[in-house]
Design goal:
- This protein has two domains: about 10-230, Vaccinia Virus protein VP39 (Rossmann fold, 3-Layer(aba) Sandwich), CATH 3.40.50; about 240-290.
- Helix content is about 45%, strand content about 15%.
- A seven-stranded mixed sheet has the order 5-2-1-6-7-9-8, with helices on both faces. Strands 3-4 form a two-stranded antiparallel sheet.
- α8 packs across α11.
- With about 300 residues, the protein is of the alpha/beta class.
- It has eleven helices and nine strands.
- The model is unreliable at about 290-295 (pLDDT under 50).
- The protein has helices at about 30-40, 55-65, 90-100, 115, 135-145, 170-175, 205-210, 215-255, 260-275, 280, 285-290; strands spanning about 45, 70-75, 80, 85, 105-110, 125-130, 150-160, 185, 190-195.
């Protein structure tokens, strides 16, 4: 990396994740790697893990940086009215990735957040990520219960601060907590709020929180573009599955509906042309990785 590059464009910000499960957090992968590098956390707690994308992004960055980080991922792995409800296949997937790739760093804590709070000492956490239920009262309760676990100089992340529909209320809490010099907000990827607990203790974090309006706009723009790279990667990895679904639908329509033969043939021709294309051949290594991904719910 060029020594004259802006402080936020560190090498880890360009890293791509190792795992791409379905997630609304995809476009924050670059910032996850950046903040792990900037904060060098020994303990991370995540309230709301679902398929594990953010958890694995933190774990992969810690692994590549050689940091001994303990990540506690908390969830019921049952779902809710915002994320939807699901069966144990989701937990099984997260458990398998954690066991295989991050056995020494990721600990899964299954249950309600309030029931697990007593397992964590006050001032024992460097990075707290709040991404559970998203109603105002829910996120306020999570913040109130878990704020004490974060040490002075630590950081709290709030996902979905840009969502204002469907009963989301994280934006309200964020507006109450965000203060100049100790907070930073991203608008992309449903919004991500970054809050310093006390005074920021590392130079990179101080620069982030003290950025003027012009610099903050550049930071947001750069991380949004870096996030788009992760989203494109995820799309490439899931493309074979989407094509498989289209093939199945075409076959089903041919077998059970009265469809013009020419329409079916046109769809088959389109699929065959795509699989013979140059881009399809170039992304063959990515599709090989895609076999490890969970199926969409």
């Amino acid at each position: 990396m060029d020594a004259d590059a802006p402080f936020w464009l560190s090498a880890p910000a360009y890293w791509l994740p190792a795992h791409y499960p379905t997630s609304a957090w995809l476009t924050h992968a670059a910032f996850a790697a950046w903040i792990v590098d900037a904060l060098r956390p020994q303990a991370i707690v995540e309230l709301g893990t679902h398929y594990g994308f953010s958890c694995f992004a933190f774990a992969e960055a810690s692994k590549r940086l050689g940091i001994s980080t303990r990540i506690s991922a908390l969830d019921t792995w049952e779902g809710d009215d915002h994320a939807g409800f699901y069966d144990d296949d989701v937990f099984a997937y997260v458990q398998e990735v954690a066991r295989t790739d991050y056995p020494d760093s990721v600990r899964l804590v299954r249950g309600r957040f309030d029931e697990s709070r007593s397992r964590f000492d006050d001032s024992s956490v460097d990075l707290l990520h709040i991404d559970g239920r998203h109603g105002y009262e829910d996120v306020l309760a999570d913040y109130s219960d878990w704020r004490g676990t974060v040490r002075d100089g630590g950081v709290i992340l709030f996902h979905d601060i840009a969502e204002r529909s469907r009963g989301f209320g994280v934006w309200r809490l964020w507006e109450e907590l965000a203060v100049p010099g100790r907070s930073f907000a991203f608008e992309h990827g449903h919004g991500l709020g970054v809050l310093s607990v006390g005074e920021p203790v590392t130079p990179a974090l101080r620069c982030l929180f003290e950025a003027d309006a012009a610099t903050a706009a550049l930071i947001r723009s750069d991380f949004e573009h870096l996030g788009e790279s992760a989203a494109r990667q995820a799309w490439l990895l899931t493309l074979p599955r989407e094509l498989e679904q289209v093939r199945a639908e075409v076959h089903d329509r041919a077998a059970h509906e009265e469809v013009q033969a020419g329409e079916i043939e046109a769809q088959r021709t389109h699929i065959d042309a795509l699989t013979r294309s140059t881009s399809w051949r170039l992304t063959a290594p990515l599709r090989a990785l895609g076999a490890r991904l969970p199926r969409r719910k």
